[in-house]
Write a structure and sequence with these properties.
Blueprint lengths: L2 H9 L11 E6 L4 H11 L4 E8 L4 H9 L6 E6 L4 H5 L4 E4 L11 H20 L6 E4 L4 H15 L7 E4 L1 H15 L10 E3 L6 E3 L12 H12 L1 H8 L7 H18 L4 E8 L7 E9 L2 E5 L8 H22 L6
Length: about 325
């Protein structure tokens, strides 16, 4: 079975069957734009036995009431305020961090990091105090810095397992398939385009040399493809009259959650994620990750036929990624 087919099968709903175990999923920041969309999709996900929605925003109870109107066999529970955070997290198998401020046009990664540090800091510290670490998926931006930050905070609290912490980068893979398929006249679901390195307009690197179906794109065409992929978020924001992408990002979070829930159920799973990984000249790296019930098993490596052009793009991205990682790790230095 090809990697493309295997990846698609694992990430589709068809992997969830009647023998699946039911899990508790907690959405932190569930009243945010992305949080509401993620919660809605998870509400009817077969593997979710209990959905917990938490937010500090006062509209959260209304969101939970709305979700309760969606017919589902899963249990639904809502929590409001920082004082209830521990209750919301307790017993969770998967926690998604989707709150914080959405990045807007003209906002730098540094400004977005400053805005979302408190959210990730508070939640990560609480997770670190749990008796066991669940799977944790960070959707809040900027992922390049917030995931290392979350890791340092959890380590400082005592409960941490790096195999279970993910930056959710599925949206990069989705966009790459869409763009590649459109260029080659192929349905996106029939395309496989690995996206590696980081998750930003300077660190996202699609590997066209590894794409399927294959292509003979020139170096200038590859650079143009990379530029278009990195600019997708901005183009969506312009089309939405200044509003950031939310629906596609939420769906990416759902796809990642499905993969993790499949792994927890004992099935082979692949997710596109940003994880702790020292194999690529930096301590964090994004790519296609194989996961089991204990967390990350391995990340797919691509060493054959990577073009000189791609190597150059990757080196430039790694320089920036190292700075982003270092910025996130500094959290304990300024405590």
């Amino acid at each position: 079975m090809s990697v493309t087919r295997k990846f698609s099968d694992i990430l589709t709903r068809r992997t969830i069957n009647s023998s699946v175990r039911f899990f508790q999923v907690c959405v932190m920041g569930g009243a945010s734009e992305i949080g509401q969309a993620v919660s809605l999709m998870l509400r009817t996900e077969p593997a979710v036995g209990k959905l917990v929605v938490h937010d500090t925003w006062r509209a959260a109870p209304g969101v939970v009431i709305e979700l309760s109107h969606v017919p589902s066999k899963s249990t639904l529970k809502g929590y409001l305020g920082e004082a209830t955070m521990k209750q919301a997290l307790d017993g969770s198998d998967l926690i998604l961090l989707v709150g914080g401020l959405l990045k807007t046009p003209g906002m730098s990664d540094e400004a977005c990091l400053d805005a979302n540090t408190e959210f990730v800091k508070t939640v990560s510290s609480q997770i670190g105090r749990l008796s066991r670490m669940p799977f944790v998926g960070v959707v809040a931006e900027p992922i390049n810095s917030l995931v290392p930050m979350a890791a340092e905070l959890m380590r400082n609290e005592g409960t941490f397992d790096g195999r279970k912490l993910f930056g959710v980068t599925t949206i990069d893979w989705m966009r790459a398939r869409t763009l590649y398929g459109a260029r080659h006249g192929v349905a996106p679901e029939e395309c496989f385009v690995p996206v590696v390195c980081g998750h930003s307009d300077e660190t996202t690197v699609p590997l066209i040399s590894q794409a399927r179906p294959g292509t003979d794109m020139t170096d200038p065409e590859i650079r143009k493809f990379v530029s278009r992929l990195r600019g997708y978020e901005e183009s969506v924001t312009r089309a939405k009259r200044g509003q950031s992408p939310t629906v596609s990002v939420a769906y990416g979070a759902l796809v990642c959650a499905r993969g993790i829930l499949a792994a927890l159920s004992g099935r082979d799973a692949l997710v596109h994620a940003y994880i702790e990984n020292n194999d690529f000249g930096t301590s964090y790296f994004s790519g296609l990750v194989r996961v089991d019930a204990n967390g990350v098993k391995e990340m797919t490596r691509y060493t054959d036929d990577i073009s000189e052009c791609e190597c150059q793009i990757l080196e430039e991205a790694l320089d920036r990624l190292r700075k982003d990682v270092a910025m996130g790790k500094k959290i304990l230095e300024v405590e």
